[in-house]
Amino acid sequence: MAKANSNVYKRLLGYSKPYTKRIIYAMIASLGVAGVDVSIAKLVQPFVDYVLETPTQSLVNLVPLVVIGLAAIKGFSRYIQEYFIKTAGQLVVQDLRNDLYDHTLDLSMGYFSKSPVGTIISRILNDVGMLQKSAADELVTVVREGLTLIGLIGLLFYNDWRLALVAFIVLPVAVIPATQIGRRIKKYVRKSLSNISNLTSILQESFSGIKVVKAFGAEEAEQDKFHKENWNYYLRMKKVIRYDSATAPIMELLSSFGAAGVLWYGIHRVMVGDITKGALMSFIAAMGMMYGPMKRLIKTNNTIQKAVGAAERVFEMLDTPRDVVDVDEAIVLPPSRGHVCFENVQFSYGDENPVLNNFSVDVPSGKMIALVGASGAGKSTLIGLLARFYDPTSGVIRIDGHDIAKVTQNSLKQQIALVDQETFLFHDTLYNNIRYSRVDATDEQVEQAAKMAYADEFINEMPEGYQTQIGDRGVRLSGGQRQRICIARAILRDAPILLLDEATSALDTESETVVQHALANLMKERTTFVIAHRLSTIMHADEILVMADGALVERGTHQQLLDAEGTYRRLYDLQFRD
Ligand SMILES: Nc1ncnc2c1ncn2[C@@H]1O[C@H](COP(=O)(O)OP(=O)(O)O)[C@@H](O)[C@H]1O
Ligand SMILES: [Mg+2]
Questions:
Q1: Cα Rg for the chain, rounded, in angstroms?
Q2: Ligand 1 midpoint to CA 378 (Å)
């Protein structure tokens, strides 16, 4: 437990390293704040013993000057200190959040298919946010109150070590409840953050699936789900509040023991003449001032534990291993001729049965291959493996003889253009959505790609043409229009390997014919894998691969496969024949 904590501290400290200068400035400034506090405590003695005992006009005149002067020094130091430590805290949190986003984006598709988007978003926003709320501001407190405390303790011992001992007997006793409370707070903050994660996830899903919610009148069910999780969050926070609120009273009570002892013993010592009244007053003033920072430090411990709870979650995510990575000796895949080869490829998404089983196929460059098979047969998975969304459990996939697991991901992706069955478009202009696949494309190239995808016509009818904004803040596109934008995007990529996963499923027959023509032109010098349900597409393939339950069961041309009277024939009879 303590070890885990110290690791978290160490990593957080690592993040603050670049901002050491700011932290040092803040520390120097906090010397000013603490110094003033200690001086005030120290000055009580001469004030009582000299100024009040034998007042002269010049001494009295000095008093307001000293009071205002000290306040000015303290105020200025405090400003400098807060400014630098808080900006340092913000910068640390910035770096942490960037790292978290960068790391998460590099995680494989496997991670994303297991983790709800909402919970990922929540970690990056809320967990880091909690860290920021807690850690950044509290750094100030620890430095300032810590220094003040050390100064005051020194002064107490310097003034009267016997009294100081009496005052400090409570300190070790106070540490025990403080650490216990801190531990509980950390635990419940961690739990509450997972509630916030769930809340974000519910929000994300209900809003992005708002059409389904409305269509099935499921608003109330969604509301119940949200309210329940929101209540769970309250229950966790209630625990945090309970422990947090108990801290101050417990400390108050414990310090009263110290104060009681000091008063009793101190007055006794004044009575027997060991110390002056001024010395006792100075001691009591210092002790009174000391319990303040002590209480605040202990309270700060609570807040720091909140931060540690959040930091643990953040670091857990940062430690999620990236399973699809470039190997050390990864080479750059040279411009591909598109010779694709699957050798005994086996793959499963989790521990369950393999989705692809001993799959082998050799596709010469420039061929158009149609993948056919019942839904769930593993067609999309095959394409995903070729795009290296996942690595095969065993077996090798080669492009031009290079194992794709041994080339850099960047160079691999350069060779591939994918149109997925999910037509995703960004909330951006049509132009930028097409250009996404090749950011250095010229306007002419973008328009050319749009023309080939049969998208040019409807784009030009849009209010602002290619600059029309789409998505939530712009126009809505039909399913077919979206697909054509995605196809244009892939065409612009101009890659030697083209992957089309039901890329034309949402097109009407007329525009499909046109897009097919465009794609046919495009496919000429490329290796293409097509998953389609329309016979017209499949018939034109150089070869058809028939898949069932993750295995290759038949291959051949349309006519060959029909003649074979096998799986393809059955699919054909079911799906394609009118
Ligand atoms: N992300 C995933 N996690 C776990 N299982 C998956 C995932 N994607 C697909 N599957 C499973 O893998 C099998 C093949 O799916 P898929 O390749 O999408 O089939 P097809 O594209 O041929 O319809 C199905 O049984 C499906 O349930
Ligand atoms: Mg599929």
A1: 35
A2: 6
> What is the best residue among 349, 502, 505 to mutate for testing ligand 1's pocket, by most ligand atoms within 8 Å of CB?
349
Which ligand is nearest to the Cα of residue 420, counting in written order?
2
Domains of the chain: 2-318 (1.20.1560.10), 424-494 (3.40.50.300)
Kindly give the confidence (pLDDT) of every residue in the chain, 578 residues in length, as a single tens digit, with 9 standing for 90 and above.
455 677 888 888 899 899 989 988 988 888 888 888 888 878 877 887 887 888 788 888 888 888 899 999 999 999 998 899 889 888 988 999 999 999 999 998 889 988 899 999 999 999 998 887 766 667 767 777 888 888 888 888 887 888 888 887 777 777 788 889 999 999 999 999 999 999 999 999 999 999 999 999 999 999 999 999 999 999 999 999 999 999 888 888 888 888 888 889 889 988 998 888 888 888 888 788 777 788 788 888 888 888 889 999 999 999 999 888 899 999 999 988 889 999 999 999 987 889 999 999 999 999 999 999 888 999 999 999 999 999 999 999 999 999 999 999 999 999 999 998 888 899 999 999 999 999 999 999 999 999 988 889 889 998 889 999 987 666 788 888 888 899 999 999 989 999 999 888 877 777 777 777 777 777 878 999 999 877 777 888 899 999 998 899 999 999 999 898 888 888 888 876 65
Listed in sequence order, the residues at least 6 apart from 394 whose beta carbon sits closer than 8 Å to its beta carbon are 344, 345, 346
Distance CA 460, CA 451 (A): 11
Tokens of 439: 């950011």
* Count of C-beta atoms within a 10 Å radius of residue 501: 21
Instruction: Point out the ligand nearest to the CA of residue 375.
Output: 1
Phi/psi of residue 469, nearest 5 degrees: -80, 135
